[in-house]
Amino acid sequence: MTDYDVIVIGAGNAGLSAAATMQRGGRRTLLLERHNVPGGAAHSFVRGRFEFEVSLHQLAGMGDEGANGPLRAVFDMLDVTRRLEFIVDDDLYRTVVPGVLDVTLPCDWQGIVETLDSHYPGNRAQLTRFMELVRDTGVWQLVARANLHKMQEQIEWLSGMSDVRRYALKSFQAVLDEFFTDDRLKHVLASYWSYNGQVPSQCPFMDLARLLTLYIEYKPYQVVGGSMSMSSAMLASFLEAGGEVKFNSDVAKILTSGGAVAGVRLSDGTEISSRMVISNAPTVATYTTMLDDDVVPERVLKDLRGRTLGPSATVLYMGLDAPAAELGFHASTNFITADLDERNLDRANRTLEPARYLVATCYDVRPTGYAPPGTSQVALASLAYGRPWEALSPEEYARAKFAYAQSQLELLKAIAPGVQDVIEEAEVATPLTFKRYLSQPGGTIYGFDQDVSDSWLFRNEDLAPNVPGLVCISNWTGAGGYNSMIVMAARVCQRILSM
After folding, report:
1. Which of 157, 301, 420, 455 is most buried, most CB within 10 Å of its CB?
2. Predicted TM-score (pTM) of this structure
3. Is 211 in contact with 61 (CB distance < 8 Å)?
4. CA-to-CA distance for 383 and 359, rounded, in angstroms?
């Protein structure tokens, strides 16, 4: 008899979702986490009288009781929903290019058509057709992903759809160019590109269509208490079902016997047996560090060598001694770009140039409970690849952090010019910060670059065992983001339980 039916490595979003699903499905499950708290990037930290949200901008896929989104369905299944309090954002997002455009989109399909047609007249017919395409394609994908426990059948079904066949290999920018000529309108519609990690010309249309559908169909949400409250709720669900968790437990090795999983060895030498390991660690680390070379198929190693690291981020966290409305924030999520040329964005993401793009998230347009009354918490996040930061000396690194944060503040002046005068607390995280705390190569927040070749439509084998008894569920195996990771992990575990 083994010590556990299942061992889950890593108590981030996907690990918590997987552990709770397996335990509630009747499998004796052990959750191992190298840190002393759960959550991974779904976490918070305190500076002065402010508690800062680390990574959540908007929560997708919730919906209400009348229109259950995929995330709410999983939270309901895991008895998590009742433990949390949610706030619906009033708007989808605000997009700003200083001196060029300033558009706030509502959270409904027709409202988006009306708003954009009022800003850019003459596009109503094209807007209607485009939004119908996005909705149809996005809904089809959500249905398929909701049935990942029947993965192959769902992918074959989805691949048979005419719009999927036509657009699956196209970028979001290419599809926008088919419908529109106004670069300003196209820029507004592509605003969510950073949630995928790729500029619009590299971002798969299918991925952004699914993302837009999640937010428009089920509304963007904030969570009272931030993402850490979700981590705590999923852990509570797991423990109440009889699961066990060990913190400060670093897995050094996944043990095998006869080519199949046999358990794990911790860094302190402790060995724990199990015939199944679910790894929320980076796929690269799982296959090249935790496993012996002779049990990993060569095709897996070849595939890993052929893929590239996705971006990390540089984030300026600010506690402001002024209310949100007074500072100019009327939308929780604000996309601010220096100009319309995506080549400048892509170059800036890969260098130490000043920020040319940021997501300015204000958590107190409708307060989430982190900031004291009369104050507000704002995070300025810009995508940034890790390599340039890794090349800096300690002295250069300190200067680069300060300079980059200043450039983010310069961009923020487009919507909130008085912020710099009311900063009470500030902290900067760079790709090196995320690399250190999340143990992700390059500090990547999306795993591999999520271009067309990385789409789950073409890489469904990522979710299938390459070593008997091993399942990988991290952000390296599918689309990143809170909804995607939590839902994907639960659905994959449902598939395992049904076998």
Report:
1. 455
2. 0.93
3. no
4. 9
Contact 466, 296 (CB under 8 A): yes
**Sequential pLDDT tens for the chain (499 residues):** 689 999 999 999 999 999 999 999 999 999 999 999 999 989 899 999 999 999 999 999 998 877 788 999 999 999 999 999 999 999 999 999 999 999 999 999 999 999 999 999 999 999 999 999 998 887 666 655 555 545 555 555 555 566 666 777 889 999 999 999 999 999 999 999 999 899 999 998 988 998 999 999 999 999 999 999 999 999 999 999 999 999 999 999 999 999 999 999 999 999 999 999 999 999 999 999 999 989 999 988 888 888 889 999 999 999 999 999 999 999 999 999 999 999 999 999 999 999 999 999 999 999 888 899 999 999 999 999 999 999 999 999 999 999 999 999 999 999 999 999 999 999 999 999 999 999 899 999 998 988 877 766 666 555 567 899 999 999 888 777 899 899 989 989 998 998 8
Q: Which of 427, 421, 488, 446 is nearest to 146 (CA)?
A: 488
List b or e across 90-106, with b for residues whose CB sees 16 or more CB atoms inside 10 angstroms.
ebbbbbbbeeebbbbbe
